[in-house]
Amino acid sequence: MQEPSRRSSAETIEFREVTKRYPGSTEAAVDGLSLEVPAGEICVLVGPSGCGKTTAMRMVNRMIDVTSGDILLGGRSVRDRKPEELRREIGYVIQQIGLFPHRTIADNITTVPSLLGWSKSRSSDRADELLELVGLPREMRDRYPSQLSGGQRQRVGVARALAVDPPVMLMDEPFGAIDPINRERLQNEFLRLQAELRKTIVFVTHDIDEAIKMGDRIAVLQVGGKLAQFAPPAELLMSPASPFVEDFVGADRALKRLALQRVRDIDLWTVATCRAGEPTADVRERTAEADLDIALLIDGDRRPLGWLSERGLTGERVRTELRSPAEPIVELDDILRDALSDLLASESMYGPVIDADGEVVGVLSMEVISHAVGSAPAEVPGATELAAQEHANGAFDVEGTDEE
After folding, report:
1. What are the start-end ranges of the H helices in 346-397?
2. Cα–Cα distance, 191 to 81 (Å, whole number)
3. What is the DSSP code (8-state) at residue 251?
4. What is the pTM of this model?
């Protein structure tokens, strides 16, 4: 059999007045759902239990058939495709992962390539390529699922979904069964992959925080399968379309907006930096002109050492007399939510901010974060822009992230 060429381009997904009504039910599971997911974006379906989000997702690959309306992939109706052929061209990742326990990791990854008639050598090469892509050592290819941690099995599930380079992926609570620490890491790793691969993804979750983090666009569904709002995360948080959406997003939606901004997106406080041995008069002059009335001691590479005490400025030259360590140290690419958490954990009102080289570029303060929470909608970057920044940073943390 001739091997099919790999498809890499993403496809638009369009729901056109899609309704699903199960036999014997008086209520629709999904009712007149219309929305469009642009190619290469993540659309998160979120809502309370029984709102039809999983049903809507499963109609894309015809695991559940539409009662009325239509779903188009790249402009073509899913009804024009045989279900088995359609599913082989759509990646699918579920919470329970669903690996075959009696098959090796490599064989699990190449399940669909084998069904499509790929040669053994090509399938083997693809398995190695994907193991590297999801951050697993190649020697795991001959292990069995029971020999992997939960986080590692979830990575294999993602690798399997990517095996034939599908233009569309469906993800049903993919990280829901993972502990909170590894869940966050796997989310970051997947976002990094998405920045590189740019698939069109329908992602189901019940967690609004996960939806805000993962989605380029979020579809909030309410019970009865009705679409309550479809918008980018920033718009959803700033302008809920109804009391239901406002309640579902939560009263702390202003704080949730901190997940949409990075430290580099806001105006930092200026600080006087100094090195041991500098003239104290010069340091005092710079401190008077800065936003913060405390000098920050740095080393020869401009990396923060600690906050200088008054005793360190008593002589003619700066002495290494610190009032406190330079904690927490915040990075420019940290999201504000995490930076705020670091400040609170350190019981500090401010922390030095460093760039990728570790050099001090300013100070983040509680006052600055407070202003960011109250900023106007136009000042909040879009989710796609933030995602591109985050993904470009390569958040793939491979070592020590998968122990259960």
Report:
1. 366-373, 383-392
2. 30
3. T
4. 0.69
For tokens 């105006």, the residue is 267
Distance CA 261, CA 400 (A): 27
Each residue's pLDDT tens digit, 187-245: 878 888 888 889 999 999 988 888 988 899 999 999 989 999 999 988 898 889 999 99
User: In this structure, which topology does domain 263-388 adopt according to CATH?
Assistant: CBS-domain (3.10.580)
Q: DSSP code of 382?
A: P
How far is it, in rounded angstroms, from Cα 243 to Cα 392? 36
Dig out the tokens for 56 from the structure: 């809507």
Where in the chain do CATH 3.10.580.10 domains reside?
Answer: 263-388
Question: What is the crossing angle of helices 180-197 and 383-392, to 10°?
Answer: 100
Query: Strand, coil or helix: what is 32?
Result: strand
H-run or E-run covering 86: helix 83-88
Q: Of all helices (H) and strands (E), which one includes residue 56?
A: helix 53-58
Of 231, 221, 226, the C-alpha closest to 43 is 231
Q: What is the DSSP letter of 11?
A: -
CA 172 – CA 351 distance, rounded (Å)? 39
pLDDT tens for residues 65-81? 999 999 999 999 999 99
Backbone dihedral angles phi then psi of residue 55, each to the nearest 5 degrees: -60, -45
What is the amino acid identity at position 379?
E
Q: How far apart are CA 297 and CA 320, in angstroms?
A: 8
Q: For tokens 């003619």, name the residue.
A: 316
> In the chain, which segments carry CATH 3.40.50.300?
13-257
pLDDT, tens only, 241-275: 999 999 998 867 767 777 777 888 889 999 999 99
Average pLDDT over residues 100-113: 90
Q: Return the structure tokens found at 52.
A: 């039809």
User: At 86, phi and psi to the nearest 5?
Assistant: -60, -45
User: What is the C-alpha separation between 132 and 134, in angstroms, rounded?
Assistant: 6
Take residue 9 and report the two structure tokens written for it.
């381009």
Q: How confident is the model at residue 155 (pLDDT cuts 50, 70, 90)?
A: confident
Q: What is the CATH number of domain 13-257?
A: 3.40.50.300
Q: What share of the chain is helix, strand, coil (3-state, %, to 5)?
A: 40, 20, 40
Angle between helices 180-197 and 150-161 (to 10 degrees): 20
